[in-house]
Design brief:
The complex is a heterodimer of chains A (352) and B (335). By secondary structure, chain A is of the alpha/beta class. Chain A is built from 14 helices and twelve strands. In chain B, helix 5 crosses helix 8 and helix 6 crosses helix 8. Classes of the chains: A alpha/beta (352), B mainly alpha (335).
């Protein structure tokens, strides 16, 4: 964190969409950094701004319909305000994105191989069709598609779900990107395939030494993949730090809520899942003060109506530098231990 | 796919047979005797009931309808001899009968009029697509902007004007009032006689059909394109770093064309079966005018022939649409 040599530096990023009902601020003052070989996990509910902020890294928002402020630097190149040809040079080349639901994200009318070859040729204009095809086969082989020299001529609908996601990854990695953004890469897949895809991503990251941003709402994926975690709520970063710390001693009630709502296969069968009450807020008229306060169970532990009136700053918590959180609670560690952990993992509380 | 085409052709044959039976029966049992036109023509408008009876007898209208339909259908494949008055007309196959109004074989008349109709239809249909698709794509790319809104509303206005009024006004202004030289001489000259005259004569009918018809193609294309451009695979194409033209045309338009092709197939069939208003207004002797005047004159052989021709075109164009589907979208397996 705060590494000046980091490959991806996002500073004070805000993304706003004007709508007939007023502006929607989907991302609000977001900052993070990511070095090569590192993985950042971005978690949050639907509509928390995870995907919107990542699409801004590729400049994928329609410039006429989006207001982007702040700064995004990719390998030293400023992306905010970069012109279309400049963005095109980055997209799919040094920054690649893989999307969820590969069936919808791959073109149904073109063969898998030609879609991969197209991604290669657009950044290697001197490459012949045969070279591009060879490269496509090589990448399909690399991501573990069986018989790549014949499957290269299949259409996406002839692939299984896991194979399509592998093909999507192959397409993302075909130009050796330094930064790979994976937007919920395993959401539509069953668990065994999910695990294979995550393993594959980790192997490839090691091999290519790329920086990876993985967007998910699944903390299991985060635990498996990420070096650092950024928790988003209503367009803002609410907690950010090393994965281990965020998972073991989180300091923001929203993160607690995410942790409490993970099913535990080894738990007592009578144990309950504890959902976060309420719904994500409307971004058209976000709540005053801390956006999470209407759903927060710990508002009463903060003096006065601070939570409803004042937006908490993103400050360092009790774990020391590198772990920041946006919360007014004075003693989050203690509340977590006493009230949250006791509920979701009583054995852990007793041990210590 | 071959088996599919054969299957569709067979069912198409059944459709065509049913259409021909329906038209035949409609006139046979219709309010006016099918023999009246020939009776009027032969007797110089002095067709008494006795004479009418006589002609009905001669033409076989007193026979069983099933037998007569059988004769008619057989004639298409083998040709037949038709006794009329005291002459016997030798009608070679494909024999569609004899028009008593024009005293000519229906097939010969059809063949004579076909080039004019094809000229009008193909040029008009070409303009449907050549104008409609690019304008629709451009509007979709700029959706929500002032230009898009102006275009959509002006095209909606244009397409709500009745076509015959639109074509009539165009003819009136370009030919009579302004006398624009290149548009002023509409009408049909065979392309084999004089290609330049053919083109000049067809230009105004083409433009009328094309401009009027392209409004709906603009609407279809715009709608399909707006939908396609919000698909995930378009975002993927952009994320690959492809230039906007590749994203819009190669990745977007190919999907958006599927619904447009459906409508176009049907429209082309309808156009080829005769464009009544266009042929009437621009004085073109094509299938549409011929069929219309035949209906007015109870000229059964001609009406049957045009109905049959129209049915065959619709069946074939539907089949072609299905084949194009499978070419555009690999997920469509024709079987």
């Amino acid at each position: 964190m705060n590494d000046p040599d980091a490959f991806l530096v996002v500073e004070d990023l805000s993304v706003e969409f004007p709508t007939p009902d007023g502006p929607v601020r989907a991302v609000n003052n977001l900052s993070y950094t990511l070095g090569l070989g590192q993985t950042l996990g971005i978690v949050g509910e639907s509509g928390s701004g995870k995907s919107v902020s990542s699409m801004a890294v590729l400049g994928l928002h329609d410039a006429d319909r989006t207001k982007i402020t702040g700064s995004i630097r990719v390998g030293g190149t400023e992306v905010v305000g970069l012109n279309e040809p400049g963005l095109r040079k980055l997209r799919g080349n040094s920054v690649a994105m893989i999307f969820q639901d590969a069936l919808a994200a791959l073109h149904p009318f073109y063969r898998v191989g030609s879609q991969l070859a197209e991604a290669y040729q657009v950044h290697h204009p001197s490459a012949s069709r045969r070279d591009a095809r060879r490269k496509a086969i090589e990448m399909l082989d690399r991501v573990g598609i069986p018989q790549p020299d014949s499957r290269v001529d299949d259409f996406p609908h002839q692939f299984s779900g896991g194979m399509r996601q592998r093909a999507m990854i192959a397409m993302g990695l075909i130009n050796d990107p330094s930064l790979l953004i994976a937007d919920e890469p395993t959401t539509a897949l069953d668990v065994t395939v999910q695990a294979q895809i995550l393993d594959l991503l980790q192997d490839l990251q090691r091999e290519f030494n790329s920086a990876v941003v993985i967007i998910t709402h699944d903390l299991g994926v985060i635990a498996e993949m990420a070096d650092e975690v950024l928790v988003m709520y209503a367009g803002r970063c609410v907690e950010y730090g090393p994965t281990k710390e965020i998972l073991v001693s989180p300091e923001m009630p929203y993160t607690w809520g995410l942790l409490s709502s993970i099913p535990d296969v080894s738990a007592d069968i009578d144990a309950r899942l504890i959902p976060i009450p309420g719904n994500p807020p409307s971004l058209l008229s976000p709540p005053s003060g801390c956006s999470f306060h209407p759903r927060c169970a710990h508002v009463d532990k903060v003096p006065g109506d601070l939570c409803a009136t004042q937006l908490p700053e993103l400050l360092e918590g009790s774990n020391g530098p590198g772990h920041v959180k946006r919360c007014h609670l004075a003693n989050p560690q203690e509340v977590f231990r006493r009230e949250v952990l006791a509920e979701i993992a009583p054995d852990l509380v007793e041990e210590s | 796919m071959f088996a599919y085409i054969i299957k569709r052709l067979l069912s198409g044959v059944i459709v065509v047979i049913l259409v021909s039976m329906a038209v035949f029966a409609l006139f046979w049992y219709g309010p006016s005797s099918p023999a009246r036109p020939i009776c009027l023509a032969e007797t110089g408008n002095r067709c008494t009931p006795d004479r009418l009876e006589n002609y009905e007898e001669q033409l076989g209208y007193n026979n069983n309808i099933v037998d007569e339909y059988g004769n008619y259908a057989k004639g298409i494949f083998t040709g037949r001899e038709m006794p009329i008055g005291n002459v016997v007309i030798d009608c070679d196959r494909p024999c569609l009968g004899f028009s008593h109004r024009s005293r000519a074989l229906v097939w010969d008349e059809l063949v004579e009029r076909l080039p004019a109709t094809i000229s009008v239809a193909v040029g008009g249909a070409f303009l449907y697509l050549a104008l409609g698709i690019p304008i629709g794509v451009a509007a979709a790319r700029r959706r929500g902007t002032l230009g898009d809104k102006l275009l959509v509303s002006s095209f909606l206005f244009l397409s709500s004007v009745p076509y015959y009024l639109f074509a009539l006004l165009a003819w009136l202004y370009f030919t009579l009032i302004w006398q624009v030289p290149i548009l002023g001489s509409s009408g049909y000259t065979p392309i084999t006689d004089n290609p330049a005259e053919w083109f000049k004569g067809m230009l105004l009918p083409w433009l009328c059909l094309g401009i009027f018809g392209c409004t709906q193609y603009t609407r279809y294309t715009r709608g399909a394109m707006v939908e396609t451009l919000s698909e995930d695979y378009i975002r993927t194409a952009k994320a690959k770093g492809l230039p906007p033209s590749t994203v819009v045309y190669r990745h977007g338009l190919r999907s958006a064309l599927v619904p447009v092709v459906t409508v176009f197939g049907i429209d082309l069939g309808v156009l080829l079966a005769g464009t009544i208003f266009t042929e009437r207004i621009f004085e073109i002797q094509g299938i549409g005018r011929w069929g219309l005047s035949a209906v007015q004159a109870f000229d059964l052989p001609v009406v049957s022939a045009t109905a049959l021709f129209g049915a065959i075109l619709i069946v074939i164009s539907n089949l072609i649409v299905d084949v194009i589907y499978s070419v555009l979208d690999p997920r469509v397996r024709l079987s």
